[in-house]
Each structure stands twice: as structure tokens, then as C-alpha cells.
Amino acid sequence: QKIDGNHGGQVLFVEFCAYVRSRVNPDANPDFDADIISGERCGKVVRTAHGNKATHTHYVQKKTLTQFDTVEKRMKDTIKDIAKLKDLWNTLDYNGNNIVSLAEIDKLVVEKFPLLNHKPALMRAYKATLRSGDGDDWVEKKEFKFLLGNLIYFNKLFWLFSNVDGDMDRRLTYQEFKKCLNIAGAKMSEAETRQDFTRVDRNGGGIILFDEFCMYFTQKACPECLTAMAE
Fold it and tell me: Which CATH architecture has domain 166-230?
């Protein structure tokens, strides 16, 4: 009853947050509570007290291919330095059993390579690494270089995929697929592009999923970073 101020029989999430915070910190600023409950003055209290500089960096920055190139260079430098490579593996394999799970890889990416924190790309990199190894469900120490290469490669593919996926539904139409090939620098005729799209779109639904997109690219062109980084 206390939270449901308008007695409508429902509690909004922002109202619930304000209630919990008041229980944890009864001396909370009442202006801040009002800010949460209304949902219309977010940030005004902070800016009034601290100026616009308090919130000027609070925005989502679009990722660029150059950023991925920078991370790729960092990984290649690590691979060339045996000491750094061992340190990175030890960070990943924190329990020292010489095998790592998908969850451990995810933790490493989030903490060390946040730019690569895209779950669809992570899953593709993980599966591709397993296929290149002995086929079990664990990435072993000897497969670590391939894992790093796969993380870069499939994240670049995910960036490419996302940039042409206009409605962000994780599916590509023919026009989006065509645009993707143009960005990638593929020199193909309209007929060749249509033929490839039809080949990838096996069920004829007129759309391509990210997994299908990855399979197409890895079969179409050898991922250079995988061979170069694993040598």
C-alpha cells in the first residue's frame, strides 16, 4: 500500500526501486526519490548539483572496425611474447587444470577484452575452436592461439553483420546481405550475389541468421587471422 501511491493495484519498477533504496538508506535525498518515481527528471538532480560534466560521458559509443584492429594487434603481440601468452592463459585457466569452459572464456572476454563481448560471436568462436581441436567440450592449452584468433575473426563478422542489420532483428534480408558483401569488398555480380544468398538461405525463408552468415564467410574466404595468429 505504501509503494502503490495511486492505489491502482500495481507497482512500477521505478517505484519498487525507490522503496528498496529508502529501506536501505532512510536518509536518501527526497529529490532523488522523486526523480526515480517520476521517471521524467532523470539526471536533473545530478546535473544541478554537479554540472553537465557529471553526465556528459554517459552515452553508448558505436564501435568501429579500427577498434577491433587495435585489439587484434594486441592479441598478436601477446602471442609473440611467450611470457604474456602464458600469463593470459593462466588468467583464463585460473584453477590450473589446463582446460577451460565456455563460462571461463566468457569471463576473460568481459574482464580483459570488453570490446569483444558479443555472445553470438563468442559462441561461434568457441565452437570453431573445438572443431579445430579434438572435438571435446573444453578448450585446451594447445588450442589457445586458435581461440584468440577465432574471437577476433567472429567478432569482426558480428560487427559487419550488425552494421547492415537495419532493424536489429539478428537476421539479414537479401538487400542487407548484398550491402554486407559490398562493405567487405567482395566483387560479385548481382547474379552471383543472389545465387550465394539462395545457397545460404537453405529453407527459402528470405533471411539469413548469424550462424549461417558465419558459415558462409568461413567457407568463402580463409580467415587470415586464424592462420597467422596460430603459427
Answer: Orthogonal Bundle (1.10)
